[in-house]
């Protein structure tokens, strides 16, 4: 051997493709490609982050005690059963790392979150995809795909990149059908965008069951994507196992303090939810008007919409046409969605620009 040999399961990883922040020509543009909050960050979180700059010489609180206590008080859950992560991405990796390895399988749906196959391969496990039901999570298909080697099941609810939602009844049915020794991870990155009546019951399941973990993030509605703060809630034994492999100082001081402040920013959260609901509805209605041109929006409960292009105008053409107009969206050919664009709900002006551009490209106007 003349050089270090990369592990075959690492070599098999198709690297994560982040949402773009600049156009092909390198110009900054409206970023509707990463599901960030168009209303920005709560003012209180910005101030807490700035205040943390007074002590950059000390390590952060390795246990994120104040943050876990604030999360516990906010959601009515036990702080000692919460784990903090460098984004919820890290929490997903920790779950895979603690419960799966070479020879094991990690199961998720087709058109699931693109981090899941990476989290599986990273630890040498085999990623397994269950078929979708019209782009949504199919509980029967997931249960049918379980084998004696299945160790972890990842379900995002709402799902990314489809925006589809799985009801509490379906989540319960999925859990009830899984072997007790399979860890069910319910990834609730977009849960704050749901209407109150749409609670999928995952936190309750994680409280009472020995094999359910819920993950959440401060990157989406809380507007703190830059700081990389996520968390998980689950049985004490699962949390303890994940702590063993967590980086000791994985969330920065500024991030911890900003997140505590963001939790208290109720008006900001409320406004963000209302803005999203209003413009997601408007956007869906406008896409429906382009049905004759082959455009169709998958019904979404998140802060983005997956638009399918099944007519003369292709998703690839629309992606480039929108980029030329300074509008960045997510085209996902690598995820089997060559015919789809995932478009984040941005500001009113951005959403109007997207629709105007799509109408022109589809030949409906002009
Ligand atoms: C955005 C997202 C996450 C998490 O992101 P972090 O920034 O790492 O917290 C997790 N799951 C899904 C489905 C997401 O879309």
TrEMBL record:
Associated pathway: Amino-acid biosynthesis; L-histidine biosynthesis; L-histidine from 5-phospho-alpha-D-ribose 1-diphosphate: step 7/9
Regions annotated as coiled coil: none
Cofactor: pyridoxal 5'-phosphate
Entry keyword set: Amino-acid biosynthesis, Aminotransferase, Histidine biosynthesis, Pyridoxal phosphate, Transferase
Regions crossing the membrane: none
The organism's place on the tree of life at top rank: Bacteria
One Pfam assignment: Aminotran_1_2
EC number from the UniProt entry: 2.6.1.9
Molecular function GO terms recorded: histidinol-phosphate transaminase activity
Entry-annotated residues carrying N6-(pyridoxal phosphate)lysine: 220
Reaction equation(s) it catalyzes: L-histidinol phosphate + 2-oxoglutarate = 3-(imidazol-4-yl)-2-oxopropyl phosphate + L-glutamate
Domain Aminotransferase class I/classII large span(s) in chain numbering: 31-358
HAMAP family with a match to the protein in the record: HisC_aminotrans_2 (MF_01023)
Family that this chain belongs to: Belongs to the class-II pyridoxal-phosphate-dependent aminotransferase family. Histidinol-phosphate aminotransferase subfamily.
Subunit structure comment from the entry: Homodimer.
Record-given protein name: Histidinol-phosphate aminotransferase
Species for this entry: Sphingomonas morindae
UniProt lineage: Bacteria, Pseudomonadati, Pseudomonadota, Alphaproteobacteria, Sphingomonadales
């Amino acid at each position: 051997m003349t050089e270090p040999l990369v592990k075959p399961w690492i070599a098999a990883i198709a690297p994560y493709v982040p949402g773009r922040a600049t156009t092909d020509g390198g110009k900054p543009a409206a970023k509707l490609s990463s599901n960030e909050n168009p209303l920005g960050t709560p003012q209180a979180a910005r101030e807490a982050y700035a205040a943390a700059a007074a002590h950059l010489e000390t390590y952060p609180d390795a246990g994120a005690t104040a943050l876990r206590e604030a999360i516990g008080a906010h959601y009515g859950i036990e702080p000692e059963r919460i784990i903090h992560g460098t984004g919820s991405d890290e929490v997903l990796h920790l779950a895979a790392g603690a419960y799966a390895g070479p020879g094991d399988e990690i199961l998720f749906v087709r058109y699931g979150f693109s981090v899941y196959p990476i989290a599986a391969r990273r630890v040498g496990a085999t990623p397994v995809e269950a078929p979708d039901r019209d782009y949504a999570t199919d509980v029967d298909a997931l249960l049918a795909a379980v084998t004696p080697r299945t160790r972890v099941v990842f379900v995002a609810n709402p799902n990314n990149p489809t925006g589809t939602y799985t009801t509490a009844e379906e989540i319960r049915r999925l859990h009830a059908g899984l072997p007790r020794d399979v860890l069910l991870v319910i990834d609730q990155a977009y849960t704050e965008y749901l209407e109150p009546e749409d609670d999928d019951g995952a936190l309750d399941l994680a409280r009472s069951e020995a094999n359910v973990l819920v993950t959440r993030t401060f990157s989406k509605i809380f507007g703190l994507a830059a700081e990389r703060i996520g968390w998980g809630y689950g049985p004490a034994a699962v949390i303890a196992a994940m702590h063993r492999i967590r980086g000791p100082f994985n969330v920065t001081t500024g991030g911890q303090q900003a997140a505590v402040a963001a939790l208290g920013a109720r008006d900001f959260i409320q406004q963000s939810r209302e803005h999203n609901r209003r413009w997601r509805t408007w956007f869906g209605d406008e896409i429906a008007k382009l049905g004759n041109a082959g455009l169709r929006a998958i019904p979404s409960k998140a802060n983005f919409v997956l638009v399918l292009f099944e007519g003369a105008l292709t998703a690839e053409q629309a992606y480039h046409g929108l980029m030329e107009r300074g509008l960045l969206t997510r085209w996902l050919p690598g995820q089997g969605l060559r015919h789809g664009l995932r478009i984040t709900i941005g500001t009113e002006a951005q959403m109007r620009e997207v629709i105007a551009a799509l109408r022109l490209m589809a030949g409906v106007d002009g």
